[in-house]
Amino acid sequence: MPVVVAVIAVLWIPGAALASGLGAGRWPAIALAPVMTTSLLSVGGIVTALVGVRWGLGAALFWVLVVPAAVWGVRLLLIRTGRRPWRFAAPPVRVWELVVGLAVALLITSWVFVVATVRPGNIVQDSDTIYHLGLVRWMLDSGSLSSLTADGFNNPDTMPFYPAAFHDVAAVVVQFTGAPIVVVDNSLLLVSSALIYPIGLMFMLNTLVATDRRLVLLAGVLSAILPYFPWRIMVWGALWAQVYGLLLIPAVLTVYCWGLLQVFRRQHWGSAALLFLVAVPGITLSHTSATFGVASGAILFSVAVSLSHALRTSGRWRWLPVAGFVLVGILGPALGAVVAPTGMYTSKATPMPIRKAFAGVVTLWSSTENAKQFAGIAIVGLALIGCVALVRRGGHDWWLPATAVVFFVLGNAVYAWGTKYIWPFIWPWYSETSRVLAIAGVFLLAMMIVGVGWLLSLAQRMGRFGIAWTVLVAAALVPLMVVQLGTVVSMIGGPYQRTGMWGWITDSKAQALRELSHQMPADAVVAANPWRGGMFLYLLGPQRTVIPTEKSYGHDLETIAAGLKNVTTDPEVCRSVHRQQVTYVLTGGTIVEGNQKWYAKYAAIDEVSEQGGFRQVAAAGQYRLWAVPACQE
Length: 633
Hints:
24 helices; 62% helix
């Protein structure tokens, strides 16, 4: 609980101060605070590294306290000189709906996390977990939170870019609290899902849609109902960077869209422009696919608003904005295809009967269980109702269903054609179906909320039967939520609770690694096969693992993996060992089921022995600890 409170404080206090200093009212400042803080820390990490200053507590305090204070200082100075600063005045929200909606969202999401993860320090048993956890420690050890070199954790030779805003936030919370990285990351995922996402949806629907006032409350109640997002990719990968980035989409998109509306209405748009410009680095450095999601929604909204404006007004140039936004919509993806890196995509086609494909689409690719199938159909049906309600309103409201359809079609097309053609828009790094459908889920859920709101609004036309109708709609939502939340708990709980051959770092492995950590100096560097769980020593003790993940690359790392057992006879291996200061080797531990094919890549680590000059110094559980012998380069 204290760590959750610390995460909330880090995300909201500096962010709300910065947003309000840039002109946001109280409600917009609350909604925008997380992305503002994310921009502060991610940009701050880059700037601090570029000027050659090591990131520490002083740097963190500068970016979260001094910078917002400086912005407020400028604002107060403008006020004292008699000028009227810009102000972002979004439509007001009813406080009781906001509070009740967030309370329900927090209650439901907390229940999911408690039941599924079992304990705050539990580690999700998936391949990328060590990367997301280890990167936070690497940032603190190296004194750099810069996304420009963040993948140096994985690839020390090239130090490439990785969008690491999620890890920046986690690192700062660890700095302030001293809490274990695993607990901080799990708490950040909880807060993001339980608060950032529903607040963003409330902000978007209340500002841009507002078909009725129920949408704010419904956004909180229904924010956790869609298994595909955020839950699926939270444990599949695990894709924490993308989860965090996509959760920011509603708030960032709303700032742009409301600012554009102010432009067409000839109202003050300066504050919206400033807020949007500050928000862009935060969401981009969270995950580039989130930027693509915002850009797609923004372009469609721009086309819709400019078209509506052109149809209502007269003038020679009224169609120019429409043409401009359409051109951006065409050139944007084309440019993305040119400048984005190429590589890790799935281009293989998946033959599928049309009936099966249709069933998959209308059930959101649920399992074959009838209850889940019907729940998927119900969600799609409610989203379609929301789509019809928005289109019938006329004006520019068709942008929301159009954006949902774009990503829904892209995500489902992956099953037929692979991800080759959408790769440029969702990197880094792998293009998979779940990544695309997760973006679709953000807009699909918004349409579903509108659909439920429209059904509830029918009560106003039913006279004395209105209350009965409201109760009926609410009662129908209960089994839908029960089924969906049951699916979510199962989806999250499975990866968090895997054991035996399916576990990357089981409780028994973790205990053994902790015991062996006590047998080494704190500054020891250890070589371990990353497919056997030994790399988690980096989180469980003060020592460093020379090969941090199964995706790590670099000359020395590959040389050690291929030849460590021959260190006393191979000068090249000896040089790599000396450069990396490797002093211990960890062997043993089971390979995660289905990954035995990778044994050969790290066989030279697993096969060290006394015959090669290695000396066993300790053993615990499945693992054996060896001292690296002296060698000649």
